[in-house]
Specification:
Layout lengths: L3 E6 L5 H15 L12 E6 L10 E4 L2 E3 L4 H11 L3
Parallel strand pairs: 1-2
Antiparallel strand pairs: 1-3, 3-4
Helix pairs in contact: 1-2
Length: about 80
Amino acid sequence: MPVTRLELHIEGLPITEREALLDVVWNELKISPGMVTADGTTELTLVQGETRPEDRPLVHLGGVAYPQMTPERLGALLRRRGTR
């Protein structure tokens, strides 16, 4: 089964926003950066590099970009995709 990469772009992101998004990932998937879910389907990585300010916070899931991500939207996205 292929691994879906969940990328959180952290460049220029305030620590409070980053931690809120990481809390959602932990609550939904029980993984921290660098970890893979117990079933081996999803990996979480933190990405450094320029992100357009209007896109922040930016999340990529399976290669698809999700700009202006909020904790609520991220939780809904993870539940909808069934990435547990």
